[in-house]
Write a structure and sequence with these properties.
Layout lengths: L3 E2 L11 E3 L10 H8 L4 E6 L6 E6 L7 E5 L2 E5 L2 E9 L6 E5 L2 E4 L3 H19 L12 E5 L1 H14 L4 H13 L6 E8 L4 E3 H5 L6 E2 L2 E2 L2 H22 L1 E3 L7 E5 L5 E5 L5 E3 L11 H21 L7 H28 L11 H4 L7 H22 L10 H10 L141 H32 L1
Parallel strand pairs: 1-13
Antiparallel strand pairs: 2-5, 3-4, 4-7, 5-6, 7-11, 8-9, 10-11, 12-16, 13-14, 15-18, 16-17
Helix pairs in contact: 3-4, 6-8, 6-10, 8-10
Length: 578
Amino acid sequence: MVYTIGKVTMDNQTGGVKRKSDDTTSQGFTPVYDMVKAVGSKLSILTAKSLKGFMLNLSVDAEDSEYLNLHGKRFKDPVTNFILKFVILTSTPNRELGYYNNVFKASETHSSFFEESRLQQYIWKKSITSGRPAICPSVANLSMFDTVNSARLMWFFLRKVNTDPTTAYVFHFLLNSSKINESGIGLLVMPTITQSTTLEHFLALDEGSVFFGKVITEDDKYYAISNVFAQIVRLFIEIGVIHFDLHPRNIMIYLTPDNEIKTLLIDFGRASNIMNGEPDTHLNILQKEELILKKKKYYDYFLHNAPSNDIKEIEKLKYMQTVIDYIAETEFLINNPKYYRDGRTYQMSWYAKYREYYDLTDTSTILEYARLFINAFDILAEMAVLDGNRTGIASTTIQAYERNGSFINLDNPDGFNSFIVPFPEPIPMRVPIDEIQFSAPRVFLPPPLDERLIPANVTAQPLLPPVPSNVNAESLLPPVPEEAVPSNVDAEPLLPHAPEEAVSSNVKAESLLPPVSEVPVPPVPEVPGPSNVDGGTKQTRTRVTRKNKRHKTNKRKKSKTKKNKRNQNKNTKKKRKN
């Protein structure tokens, strides 16, 4: 089936990016925040099939872009398309996050995500000097957020994509995964490779398919593969890096404005810099030293023979096969025992199809596959050999851009800690502070206290402080007849008034209480208990449970059965004597 891929555009975003302004005060996530917040910006998901990353596309208008694209040795055109890579950051590596659309996802650590970004920027800077083509995209921005700021970041993106449920589902998954303590979100921003697709997709195109306006032929596919071979070898012998995750989805094929097919390598999360002299998760020091010797041997041979045109095609063929075989074998020896453990699976297994061409029976196909390596050597010579006629950005200019903030500087001595940033948006308030109307608080008074419950020797404290007054409080009480109160009896205003004949000097106050019901109450037996502190006895009630009763009955039954057995024995003895 013939396909048509993409819309033709003259926007060439492959050289790299720098900030429009060198204002160092607006660093961190602020430039990306300003672009996403713009009205004309759009977000869409690209892929989430990798183990750890979620790739999204951000498109902005030219006037809203914060970055410029590199053409030759000048940065001039605004970058309008970006790739946003989101990952979950945890203190421990490879924490299981569950499944997203049937794809198992895991987390990264802050240091591994930072090292991936730093390695990618290092490869880009080394590869573009003197006007040479880039091996990978550059890094525009790197930001890492803690748990609280990650939640605010995700709600910011969810408000942006609230009409797109597919993209919103990505941010919901990231939001839920970052709620765990010591978790966060990392964001890597790169320029989008315009007019591009993956090697896997490109090779699946039928002959005659339209690729951004260019009709694809079989020769175009062979040229793309040769270009990929050249970039893989160049990454090793020139930069000193081995990519341990080179499957066809991490290789990009793009079309230049001149209708030329070029390639880039992406996703350096599982790559190793053999020149840094430090062990990593893939290689130890001894392995790196061995690889450095091989790199020097292959690079010296290339520099000695590539500039001259006298090298034979068979030597080009053998050289490219030898170097790529060594890279693929190294990747197999590291990855298979670590991830697959089946003795045959590795990420560059797609390469074996072109390497084992001698097993084919078709002579024309054998010659075409052999031509792939010969052309790859010629492309490598064009890429890697320094040419005085090229005009490109100098290494001193790159360093100056890093100092003034135009380039992201990932060689900061503070490491990844300098890239843990806050979310720039202030915390919103639902109601402005100056519009809130404050009213007097509502006070709930306690219910009135029954004064009869207060003991005679306790004075009730007033609920409110006393108010000075010249009025005698006793004058406010109702008058009591003088003849009803004898001289030797205190007035009890809290008790109800009794009839006059009941009030006398020998009358007790208890007789004034209402009579108790005349129903007879059986007396409670007194059980002697432990003595109180006052010298009296404390009445306690012995609790007899059913278990105790049963226990006693069981003892009685046992005693009866023993007596019965004795009587039976006596009777039997008497019978025997008789």
